[in-house]
What we know:
mainly alpha, rod-shaped
Amino acid sequence: MKKWFDPKISTGHILTIVTFLVAAIGAYGDMRAYKATNDARISRLEERDKASAEREAICLEATQKLSENVARLEERISRNNRSQPFEPKAQRN
Length: 93
């Protein structure tokens, strides 16, 4: 009957452990680089979002001013129409 466990450390064991450690260190380095890249992307997106929110606020303010101006113009036109009724001009033939 064969032994299932051999307590001797062989070259294959050492190579397996070294390969595993190198792979783990490489994966950790890639993970850190990926995290740094994502942090930079998130920062840029947050800055872009902030700038977009500022532009949106400016557009909203301009839209409100335009709405106020349109309302005033509508009021002027209605006052003008009330004071001077429309009379069609005679057509020339």
